[in-house]
Amino acid sequence: MFSFTSIKNYHTFLADHPNGCKIAVNHFLSKIEENKHLNSFLEVYAEEAIQLAKELDIKRNSGKKIGKLHGVIVSLKDVIAYKGHHLSASSKILAGFTSIYDSTVVKKLLEEDAIIIGRNNCDEFAMGSSNENSAFGFVRNAMDENKVSGGSSGGSAVAVQAGLCMISLGSDTGGSVRQPADYCGVIGLKPSYGRISRYGLIAYASSFDQIGIFANSVDDAALCLEVIAGKDEFDSTVSEKIVPQYSTLIHQSSKKYRIAYFKQALEHPSLNPEIASSILSVLEILTKKGHFVQAIDFELLEYVVPTYYILTTAEASSNLSRFDGIKYGYRSNSTNADLTELYKQTRSAGFGNEVKRRIMLGSFVLSSGYYEAYYTRAQQVRRTLSNQVNRIFSEYDLIISPTVPSTAFNIGEKTDDPIKMFLTDIYTVFANLVGIPAISIPIFKHSNGMPFGLQLMSSHFNEVLLLALSKEMMQS
Ligand code: GLN
Protein backbone atom coordinates (compact mmCIF):
# COMPACT_ATOMS: atom_id res chain seq x y z
CA MET A 1 0.00 0.00 0.00
CA PHE A 2 1.34 3.41 -0.99
CA SER A 3 1.49 6.08 1.65
CA PHE A 4 2.93 9.58 1.43
CA THR A 5 4.99 11.14 4.21
CA SER A 6 7.44 13.48 2.50
CA ILE A 7 8.91 14.15 -0.94
CA LYS A 8 12.26 12.80 0.25
CA ASN A 9 10.73 9.48 1.32
CA TYR A 10 8.68 9.36 -1.87
CA HIS A 11 11.84 9.74 -3.93
CA THR A 12 13.42 6.87 -2.00
CA PHE A 13 10.33 4.80 -2.79
CA LEU A 14 10.61 5.73 -6.50
CA ALA A 15 14.22 4.56 -6.59
CA ASP A 16 13.09 0.97 -6.21
CA HIS A 17 9.66 1.09 -7.81
CA PRO A 18 9.93 1.35 -11.60
CA ASN A 19 6.24 2.26 -11.88
CA GLY A 20 6.21 4.33 -8.69
CA CYS A 21 4.76 7.54 -10.15
CA LYS A 22 1.85 5.58 -11.55
CA ILE A 23 1.27 3.89 -8.21
CA ALA A 24 1.26 7.30 -6.51
CA VAL A 25 -1.14 8.87 -9.02
CA ASN A 26 -3.56 5.96 -8.70
CA HIS A 27 -3.39 6.22 -4.93
CA PHE A 28 -4.27 9.92 -4.96
CA LEU A 29 -6.98 9.51 -7.58
CA SER A 30 -8.73 6.96 -5.39
CA LYS A 31 -8.33 9.16 -2.31
CA ILE A 32 -9.88 12.07 -4.23
CA GLU A 33 -12.77 9.84 -5.28
CA GLU A 34 -13.30 8.59 -1.70
CA ASN A 35 -13.36 12.16 -0.40
CA LYS A 36 -15.49 13.74 -3.08
CA HIS A 37 -18.00 14.94 -0.51
CA LEU A 38 -15.39 17.31 0.94
CA ASN A 39 -15.71 19.32 -2.31
CA SER A 40 -12.00 20.10 -2.37
CA PHE A 41 -11.56 19.57 -6.12
CA LEU A 42 -13.53 21.29 -8.86
CA GLU A 43 -11.86 19.19 -11.51
CA VAL A 44 -9.51 16.20 -11.56
CA TYR A 45 -7.12 15.60 -14.45
CA ALA A 46 -7.11 11.83 -14.01
CA GLU A 47 -6.13 10.63 -17.46
CA GLU A 48 -3.48 13.27 -18.01
CA ALA A 49 -1.96 12.60 -14.60
CA ILE A 50 -1.76 8.85 -15.29
CA GLN A 51 -0.23 9.51 -18.69
CA LEU A 52 2.39 11.88 -17.29
CA ALA A 53 3.16 9.45 -14.47
CA LYS A 54 3.89 6.73 -17.03
CA GLU A 55 6.17 9.09 -18.98
CA LEU A 56 8.01 10.08 -15.81
CA ASP A 57 8.47 6.45 -14.81
CA ILE A 58 10.01 5.79 -18.24
CA LYS A 59 12.24 8.84 -17.95
CA ARG A 60 13.53 7.80 -14.53
CA ASN A 61 14.05 4.18 -15.51
CA SER A 62 16.05 5.23 -18.54
CA GLY A 63 18.55 6.96 -16.28
CA LYS A 64 17.85 10.48 -17.54
CA LYS A 65 18.32 13.38 -15.14
CA ILE A 66 15.14 13.85 -13.14
CA GLY A 67 13.61 17.04 -11.80
CA LYS A 68 13.57 18.22 -8.20
CA LEU A 69 9.85 17.56 -8.01
CA HIS A 70 9.96 14.35 -9.99
CA GLY A 71 6.55 12.70 -9.80
CA VAL A 72 5.38 15.05 -7.05
CA ILE A 73 1.61 15.34 -7.17
CA VAL A 74 0.39 18.90 -6.94
CA SER A 75 -3.02 20.53 -7.02
CA LEU A 76 -3.78 24.14 -7.92
CA LYS A 77 -6.19 26.65 -6.48
CA ASP A 78 -8.65 27.64 -9.19
CA VAL A 79 -6.98 31.01 -9.70
CA ILE A 80 -3.74 29.69 -11.22
CA ALA A 81 -3.60 29.35 -15.00
CA TYR A 82 -2.76 25.98 -16.55
CA LYS A 83 -2.77 25.97 -20.31
CA GLY A 84 -5.65 24.11 -21.92
CA HIS A 85 -7.47 23.71 -18.61
CA HIS A 86 -10.53 25.42 -17.23
CA LEU A 87 -9.95 28.31 -14.90
CA SER A 88 -12.89 29.89 -13.08
CA ALA A 89 -11.80 31.55 -9.80
CA SER A 90 -14.78 29.56 -8.45
CA SER A 91 -17.03 32.07 -10.19
CA LYS A 92 -19.89 31.69 -12.62
CA ILE A 93 -18.56 34.66 -14.55
CA LEU A 94 -15.71 32.58 -15.94
CA ALA A 95 -17.96 29.72 -17.00
CA GLY A 96 -16.43 27.83 -19.89
CA PHE A 97 -13.15 29.76 -19.83
CA THR A 98 -10.01 27.81 -20.71
CA SER A 99 -6.55 29.18 -20.07
CA ILE A 100 -4.49 29.78 -23.18
CA TYR A 101 -1.17 29.90 -21.33
CA ASP A 102 0.66 28.47 -18.31
CA SER A 103 1.26 30.58 -15.26
CA THR A 104 4.96 30.86 -14.43
CA VAL A 105 4.54 28.62 -11.37
CA VAL A 106 2.94 25.89 -13.46
CA LYS A 107 5.72 26.15 -16.02
CA LYS A 108 8.34 25.81 -13.29
CA LEU A 109 6.54 22.89 -11.63
CA LEU A 110 6.29 21.01 -14.91
CA GLU A 111 9.93 21.70 -15.78
CA GLU A 112 10.87 19.94 -12.54
CA ASP A 113 8.67 16.92 -13.34
CA ALA A 114 5.68 17.64 -11.09
CA ILE A 115 2.30 16.12 -11.92
CA ILE A 116 -0.71 18.43 -11.69
CA ILE A 117 -3.68 16.40 -10.57
CA GLY A 118 -6.49 18.94 -10.50
CA ARG A 119 -7.96 22.29 -9.66
CA ASN A 120 -9.20 23.19 -6.19
CA ASN A 121 -12.30 24.95 -4.99
CA CYS A 122 -11.85 28.37 -3.34
CA ASP A 123 -13.79 31.48 -2.42
CA GLU A 124 -14.91 33.35 -5.53
CA PHE A 125 -11.97 35.44 -6.78
CA ALA A 126 -10.17 34.50 -3.55
CA MET A 127 -12.46 36.75 -1.52
CA GLY A 128 -13.39 35.12 1.75
CA SER A 129 -12.23 33.38 4.88
CA SER A 130 -14.29 30.19 4.85
CA ASN A 131 -14.64 28.98 1.25
CA GLU A 132 -18.38 29.62 1.57
CA ASN A 133 -18.27 32.27 -1.18
CA SER A 134 -17.54 29.75 -3.93
CA ALA A 135 -20.10 29.49 -6.74
CA PHE A 136 -19.51 25.73 -6.44
CA GLY A 137 -20.31 25.25 -2.77
CA PHE A 138 -18.32 25.18 0.45
CA VAL A 139 -15.47 22.82 1.28
CA ARG A 140 -15.71 20.60 4.33
CA ASN A 141 -12.92 20.39 6.89
CA ALA A 142 -11.76 16.77 6.91
CA MET A 143 -11.12 16.92 10.67
CA ASP A 144 -14.79 17.73 11.35
CA GLU A 145 -16.99 17.79 8.31
CA ASN A 146 -19.45 20.28 9.83
CA LYS A 147 -16.71 22.87 10.08
CA VAL A 148 -15.39 25.20 7.41
CA SER A 149 -12.08 24.57 5.69
CA GLY A 150 -11.12 28.22 6.00
CA GLY A 151 -10.51 30.36 2.97
CA SER A 152 -10.04 31.51 0.49
CA SER A 153 -7.80 28.58 -0.52
CA GLY A 154 -10.00 26.06 1.34
CA GLY A 155 -9.96 23.38 -1.34
CA SER A 156 -6.15 23.41 -1.44
CA ALA A 157 -5.82 23.19 2.34
CA VAL A 158 -8.19 20.22 2.51
CA ALA A 159 -6.42 18.56 -0.43
CA VAL A 160 -3.24 18.40 1.67
CA GLN A 161 -5.06 17.75 4.96
CA ALA A 162 -7.03 14.78 3.63
CA GLY A 163 -4.07 13.33 1.71
CA LEU A 164 -5.48 14.04 -1.76
CA CYS A 165 -2.15 15.32 -3.13
CA MET A 166 1.37 16.00 -1.88
CA ILE A 167 1.54 19.78 -2.28
CA SER A 168 -1.04 22.36 -3.18
CA LEU A 169 -0.60 25.91 -4.39
CA GLY A 170 -2.94 28.63 -3.19
CA SER A 171 -2.88 32.40 -3.15
CA ASP A 172 -2.59 34.65 -0.13
CA THR A 173 -3.76 38.26 -0.32
CA GLY A 174 -4.63 38.64 3.35
CA GLY A 175 -4.20 35.18 4.83
CA SER A 176 -5.81 32.82 2.35
CA VAL A 177 -3.03 30.27 2.62
CA ARG A 178 -2.17 30.63 6.32
CA GLN A 179 -5.73 30.78 7.66
CA PRO A 180 -7.07 27.58 6.02
CA ALA A 181 -3.75 25.90 6.84
CA ASP A 182 -4.37 26.79 10.49
CA TYR A 183 -7.94 25.44 10.37
CA CYS A 184 -6.88 22.21 8.68
CA GLY A 185 -3.68 21.44 10.57
CA VAL A 186 -1.22 21.76 7.69
CA ILE A 187 1.66 24.08 6.82
CA GLY A 188 0.77 27.26 4.93
CA LEU A 189 3.56 29.45 3.58
CA LYS A 190 3.14 32.94 2.14
CA PRO A 191 6.51 34.06 0.82
CA SER A 192 7.62 37.71 0.54
CA TYR A 193 5.76 39.86 -1.93
CA GLY A 194 7.79 39.58 -5.13
CA ARG A 195 9.37 36.21 -4.33
CA ILE A 196 7.14 34.23 -6.71
CA SER A 197 5.86 35.43 -10.07
CA ARG A 198 2.17 36.32 -10.21
CA TYR A 199 2.06 35.80 -13.96
CA GLY A 200 -0.99 33.64 -14.59
CA LEU A 201 -2.51 34.24 -11.15
CA ILE A 202 -5.98 35.79 -11.37
CA ALA A 203 -5.59 39.15 -9.69
CA TYR A 204 -7.56 40.11 -6.61
CA ALA A 205 -5.45 42.94 -5.11
CA SER A 206 -2.21 43.10 -7.05
CA SER A 207 -0.07 44.86 -4.45
CA PHE A 208 -0.99 42.17 -1.89
CA ASP A 209 -1.40 38.93 -3.88
CA GLN A 210 1.19 36.23 -3.52
CA ILE A 211 1.15 32.57 -4.45
CA GLY A 212 1.65 30.34 -1.41
CA ILE A 213 2.28 26.69 -0.60
CA PHE A 214 0.41 24.07 1.42
CA ALA A 215 2.47 21.10 2.56
CA ASN A 216 2.76 18.46 5.24
CA SER A 217 6.34 19.27 6.14
CA VAL A 218 8.60 22.30 6.16
CA ASP A 219 11.06 20.43 3.94
CA ASP A 220 8.44 19.90 1.25
CA ALA A 221 7.37 23.55 1.39
CA ALA A 222 11.02 24.66 1.16
CA LEU A 223 11.70 22.45 -1.85
CA CYS A 224 8.59 23.66 -3.64
CA LEU A 225 9.46 27.30 -2.93
CA GLU A 226 12.93 26.74 -4.32
CA VAL A 227 11.36 25.54 -7.57
CA ILE A 228 8.65 28.15 -8.07
CA ALA A 229 10.40 31.30 -6.78
CA GLY A 230 12.53 33.65 -8.80
CA LYS A 231 12.65 36.38 -11.36
CA ASP A 232 10.33 36.40 -14.31
CA GLU A 233 10.23 38.63 -17.33
CA PHE A 234 6.43 38.43 -17.31
CA ASP A 235 6.03 39.98 -13.86
CA SER A 236 7.93 43.18 -13.19
CA THR A 237 7.10 43.08 -9.47
CA VAL A 238 9.12 39.90 -8.96
CA SER A 239 12.47 40.34 -7.31
CA GLU A 240 15.67 39.65 -9.20
CA LYS A 241 17.22 38.31 -5.99
CA ILE A 242 18.86 34.92 -6.34
CA VAL A 243 16.67 32.10 -5.01
CA PRO A 244 18.46 30.44 -2.08
CA GLN A 245 18.64 26.65 -1.87
CA TYR A 246 15.96 26.64 0.80
CA SER A 247 15.75 22.86 1.03
CA THR A 248 19.37 22.57 2.15
CA LEU A 249 19.80 25.87 4.00
CA ILE A 250 17.01 25.22 6.46
CA HIS A 251 18.93 22.40 8.06
CA GLN A 252 21.62 24.72 9.29
CA SER A 253 19.74 26.19 12.18
CA SER A 254 21.35 26.03 15.56
CA LYS A 255 21.22 29.78 15.93
CA LYS A 256 19.60 31.69 18.72
CA TYR A 257 17.08 34.21 17.47
CA ARG A 258 15.68 37.49 18.70
CA ILE A 259 11.93 36.96 18.65
CA ALA A 260 9.25 39.61 19.19
CA TYR A 261 5.58 39.16 19.81
CA PHE A 262 2.86 41.80 19.84
CA LYS A 263 1.38 42.36 23.28
CA GLN A 264 -1.88 43.65 21.80
CA ALA A 265 -2.19 40.54 19.61
CA LEU A 266 -2.01 38.15 22.54
CA GLU A 267 -4.31 40.27 24.68
CA HIS A 268 -6.91 40.84 21.95
CA PRO A 269 -10.48 40.13 23.16
CA SER A 270 -11.28 38.10 20.03
CA LEU A 271 -8.45 35.66 20.75
CA ASN A 272 -9.54 32.30 22.14
CA PRO A 273 -7.89 31.97 25.59
CA GLU A 274 -6.61 28.48 24.90
CA ILE A 275 -4.87 29.70 21.73
CA ALA A 276 -3.33 32.59 23.68
CA SER A 277 -2.01 30.32 26.43
CA SER A 278 -0.64 27.78 23.93
CA ILE A 279 1.30 30.49 22.10
CA LEU A 280 2.61 31.88 25.39
CA SER A 281 3.79 28.45 26.47
CA VAL A 282 5.70 28.03 23.20
CA LEU A 283 7.30 31.43 23.74
CA GLU A 284 8.45 30.23 27.15
CA ILE A 285 9.93 27.10 25.65
CA LEU A 286 11.79 29.20 23.08
CA THR A 287 13.18 31.35 25.88
CA LYS A 288 14.31 28.25 27.76
CA LYS A 289 16.07 27.05 24.62
CA GLY A 290 18.12 30.22 24.62
CA HIS A 291 16.23 32.41 22.15
CA PHE A 292 15.64 36.00 23.18
CA VAL A 293 11.87 36.55 23.34
CA GLN A 294 10.28 39.89 24.06
CA ALA A 295 6.82 41.49 24.00
CA ILE A 296 6.55 44.67 21.97
CA ASP A 297 3.76 47.17 21.45
CA PHE A 298 1.66 47.18 18.33
CA GLU A 299 -0.77 50.03 18.76
CA LEU A 300 -1.98 49.82 15.16
CA LEU A 301 -3.48 46.33 15.47
CA GLU A 302 -7.06 47.67 15.36
CA TYR A 303 -6.30 49.45 12.07
CA VAL A 304 -4.94 46.58 10.05
CA VAL A 305 -8.23 44.94 9.07
CA PRO A 306 -9.98 48.19 7.95
CA THR A 307 -6.82 49.28 6.11
CA TYR A 308 -6.60 45.93 4.37
CA TYR A 309 -10.26 45.93 3.32
CA ILE A 310 -10.11 49.50 1.99
CA LEU A 311 -7.01 48.93 -0.10
CA THR A 312 -7.82 45.44 -1.37
CA THR A 313 -11.38 46.29 -2.38
CA ALA A 314 -10.08 49.40 -4.18
CA GLU A 315 -7.63 47.27 -6.15
CA ALA A 316 -10.25 44.56 -6.72
CA SER A 317 -12.78 47.03 -8.13
CA SER A 318 -10.24 47.91 -10.78
CA ASN A 319 -8.90 44.38 -11.40
CA LEU A 320 -12.35 42.87 -11.78
CA SER A 321 -13.53 45.44 -14.32
CA ARG A 322 -12.13 43.18 -17.04
CA PHE A 323 -14.87 40.60 -16.42
CA ASP A 324 -17.56 42.18 -18.52
CA GLY A 325 -19.08 39.43 -20.63
CA ILE A 326 -17.18 40.53 -23.73
CA LYS A 327 -13.68 39.24 -23.14
CA TYR A 328 -14.10 36.08 -21.10
CA GLY A 329 -16.50 33.44 -19.89
CA TYR A 330 -20.14 34.02 -19.14
CA ARG A 331 -22.25 36.55 -21.11
CA SER A 332 -25.84 37.43 -20.35
CA ASN A 333 -28.01 36.19 -23.22
CA SER A 334 -30.46 39.07 -23.12
CA THR A 335 -31.11 40.03 -26.74
CA ASN A 336 -32.16 43.65 -26.63
CA ALA A 337 -29.41 44.99 -24.36
CA ASP A 338 -27.02 47.74 -25.46
CA LEU A 339 -23.39 47.42 -24.44
CA THR A 340 -23.75 49.07 -21.01
CA GLU A 341 -26.84 47.01 -20.26
CA LEU A 342 -24.99 43.85 -21.35
CA TYR A 343 -22.15 44.64 -18.93
CA LYS A 344 -24.63 45.24 -16.13
CA GLN A 345 -26.63 42.11 -16.72
CA THR A 346 -23.56 39.94 -17.15
CA ARG A 347 -21.85 41.24 -14.03
CA SER A 348 -25.06 41.15 -11.96
CA ALA A 349 -25.71 37.52 -12.82
CA GLY A 350 -22.08 36.36 -13.07
CA PHE A 351 -20.63 37.64 -9.80
CA GLY A 352 -21.66 36.36 -6.38
CA ASN A 353 -22.72 38.62 -3.51
CA GLU A 354 -19.37 38.92 -1.76
CA VAL A 355 -17.59 39.92 -4.96
CA LYS A 356 -20.27 42.50 -5.68
CA ARG A 357 -20.01 43.85 -2.14
CA ARG A 358 -16.27 44.33 -2.58
CA ILE A 359 -16.51 45.92 -6.02
CA MET A 360 -19.01 48.41 -4.59
CA LEU A 361 -16.92 49.06 -1.48
CA GLY A 362 -13.80 49.51 -3.59
CA SER A 363 -15.54 51.86 -6.02
CA PHE A 364 -16.83 53.85 -3.06
CA VAL A 365 -13.44 54.33 -1.37
CA LEU A 366 -11.99 55.44 -4.70
CA SER A 367 -14.78 57.84 -5.60
CA SER A 368 -14.22 61.56 -5.57
CA GLY A 369 -15.11 63.12 -2.25
CA TYR A 370 -14.27 59.93 -0.34
CA TYR A 371 -10.89 59.09 -1.84
CA GLU A 372 -8.87 61.20 0.61
CA ALA A 373 -10.86 60.08 3.62
CA TYR A 374 -10.51 56.36 2.90
CA TYR A 375 -8.03 55.39 0.21
CA THR A 376 -5.38 58.00 0.98
CA ARG A 377 -5.70 57.45 4.73
CA ALA A 378 -5.37 53.71 4.30
CA GLN A 379 -2.25 54.20 2.17
CA GLN A 380 -0.82 56.34 4.96
CA VAL A 381 -1.48 53.60 7.50
CA ARG A 382 0.19 51.12 5.16
CA ARG A 383 3.25 53.37 4.97
CA THR A 384 3.33 53.73 8.78
CA LEU A 385 3.13 49.94 9.15
CA SER A 386 6.02 49.50 6.73
CA ASN A 387 8.17 51.94 8.68
CA GLN A 388 7.27 50.15 11.87
CA VAL A 389 8.12 46.74 10.47
CA ASN A 390 11.54 48.01 9.36
CA ARG A 391 12.19 49.24 12.87
CA ILE A 392 11.08 45.92 14.37
CA PHE A 393 13.36 43.92 12.09
CA SER A 394 16.31 46.13 12.89
CA GLU A 395 16.06 44.75 16.42
CA TYR A 396 14.46 41.32 16.00
CA ASP A 397 14.77 38.38 13.59
CA LEU A 398 11.21 37.14 13.79
CA ILE A 399 7.72 37.96 14.97
CA ILE A 400 5.47 35.26 16.41
CA SER A 401 1.70 35.53 16.64
CA PRO A 402 -1.41 33.41 16.46
CA THR A 403 -2.50 32.73 12.87
CA VAL A 404 -6.24 33.05 13.53
CA PRO A 405 -8.12 34.08 16.72
CA SER A 406 -10.19 30.87 16.88
CA THR A 407 -10.30 27.37 15.46
CA ALA A 408 -12.44 26.44 12.43
CA PHE A 409 -16.07 27.45 12.95
CA ASN A 410 -19.28 25.72 11.88
CA ILE A 411 -20.39 25.92 8.27
CA GLY A 412 -22.89 28.80 8.02
CA GLU A 413 -21.95 30.30 11.38
CA LYS A 414 -20.58 33.61 10.08
CA THR A 415 -22.11 33.98 6.65
CA ASP A 416 -24.61 36.63 7.78
CA ASP A 417 -22.03 38.82 9.45
CA PRO A 418 -19.31 40.02 7.07
CA ILE A 419 -17.54 42.05 9.77
CA LYS A 420 -17.18 38.97 11.97
CA MET A 421 -15.83 37.10 8.97
CA PHE A 422 -13.38 39.93 8.14
CA LEU A 423 -12.09 39.91 11.73
CA THR A 424 -10.80 36.36 11.41
CA ASP A 425 -8.04 37.99 9.31
CA ILE A 426 -6.72 40.19 12.12
CA TYR A 427 -3.37 38.40 12.47
CA THR A 428 -2.72 37.53 8.83
CA VAL A 429 -3.31 40.75 6.85
CA PHE A 430 -0.33 42.52 8.45
CA ALA A 431 2.22 40.43 6.52
CA ASN A 432 0.48 41.25 3.22
CA LEU A 433 0.18 44.95 4.01
CA VAL A 434 3.95 45.17 4.46
CA GLY A 435 4.97 42.39 2.06
CA ILE A 436 6.94 40.21 4.49
CA PRO A 437 7.00 36.39 4.42
CA ALA A 438 4.87 34.49 6.91
CA ILE A 439 4.06 30.88 7.68
CA SER A 440 1.51 29.03 9.74
CA ILE A 441 2.79 25.84 11.34
CA PRO A 442 0.35 23.26 12.75
CA ILE A 443 1.71 22.56 16.21
CA PHE A 444 -1.39 22.65 18.40
CA LYS A 445 -4.61 20.80 19.01
CA HIS A 446 -7.43 22.58 20.81
CA SER A 447 -9.48 20.86 23.54
CA ASN A 448 -12.42 21.16 21.08
CA GLY A 449 -10.59 18.64 18.89
CA MET A 450 -9.60 21.04 16.11
CA PRO A 451 -6.03 21.86 15.09
CA PHE A 452 -4.56 25.34 15.10
CA GLY A 453 -1.29 26.91 14.15
CA LEU A 454 1.26 29.46 15.12
CA GLN A 455 2.38 32.20 12.75
CA LEU A 456 5.99 33.20 12.20
CA MET A 457 6.98 36.30 10.23
CA SER A 458 10.44 37.42 9.18
CA SER A 459 11.89 40.37 7.29
CA HIS A 460 11.59 40.70 3.51
CA PHE A 461 13.17 37.79 1.63
CA ASN A 462 14.29 36.09 4.79
CA GLU A 463 12.41 32.86 4.09
CA VAL A 464 15.46 30.79 5.08
CA LEU A 465 15.25 31.95 8.64
CA LEU A 466 11.47 31.57 8.72
CA LEU A 467 11.66 28.00 7.44
CA ALA A 468 14.61 27.06 9.63
CA LEU A 469 12.90 28.04 12.87
CA SER A 470 9.63 26.49 11.67
CA LYS A 471 11.44 23.22 11.10
CA GLU A 472 13.04 23.36 14.52
CA MET A 473 9.67 24.08 16.16
CA MET A 474 7.87 21.31 14.29
CA GLN A 475 10.49 18.83 15.45
CA SER A 476 10.34 19.70 19.12
N1 GLN B 1 -9.96 36.63 3.97
C1 GLN B 1 -9.29 37.66 3.23
C2 GLN B 1 -10.21 38.31 2.25
O1 GLN B 1 -11.32 37.87 2.14
C3 GLN B 1 -8.07 37.09 2.57
C4 GLN B 1 -8.29 36.61 1.20
C5 GLN B 1 -7.03 36.16 0.52
O2 GLN B 1 -5.96 36.12 1.11
N2 GLN B 1 -7.17 35.89 -0.76
O3 GLN B 1 -9.86 39.26 1.61
Structure description:
The protein has helices at 7-15, 20-34, 46-61, 104-111, 154-161, 178-184, 218-228, 246-249, 263-266, 273-288, 301-319, 339-350, 353-366, 372-395, 418-423, 429-434, 463-475, and strands spanning 41-44, 73-77, 115-120, 140-141, 144-148, 167-171, 187-190, 211-215, 258-262, 292-296, 398-402, 438-445, 451-458. With 476 residues, the chain is an alpha/beta fold. The chain has one domain (1-476): Amidase signature (AS) enzymes, CATH 3.90.1300. The strands form 2 sheets. It has an 11-stranded mixed sheet, sandwiched between helices. The mean pLDDT is 96. It binds glutamine.
Keywords:
binds glutamine, 476 residues, Amidase signature (AS) enzymes, 14% strand, alpha/beta, 11-stranded mixed sheet
Task: Briefly say what this structure is.
The protein has 476 residues and is of the alpha/beta class. The protein has a single domain (1-476), classed as Alpha-Beta Complex (Amidase signature (AS) enzymes).
**Unique ligands:** glutamine
For the record, the count of structural domains works out to 1
Q: Main β-sheet, in a few words?
A: 11 strands, mixed
The N- and C-terminal alpha carbons lie at a distance of 29 Å
**Run of helices and strands:** HHEHEHEEEHEHEEHHEHHEHHHHEHHEEH
Mean pLDDT: 96
CATH evolutionary superfamily: Amidase signature (AS) domain
Instruction: Please give the order of strands in the largest beta sheet.
Output: 1-3-2-6-8-7-12-13-11-9-10
* Shape assignment: globular
Question: What fraction strand?
Answer: 5-15%
Work out the helicity level: 40-55%
Mind telling me which CATH architecture this is? Alpha-Beta Complex
Query: Uncertain regions: pLDDT < 50 for 5+ in a row?
Result: none
Tally of strands: 13
The number of distinct helices, counting runs of at least 4 residues, comes to 17
What is the C-level CATH assignment? Alpha Beta
Which fold name fills CATH's third level, the topology?
Amidase signature (AS) enzymes
Structural class: alpha/beta
Computed over alpha carbons, the radius of gyration is: 22 Å
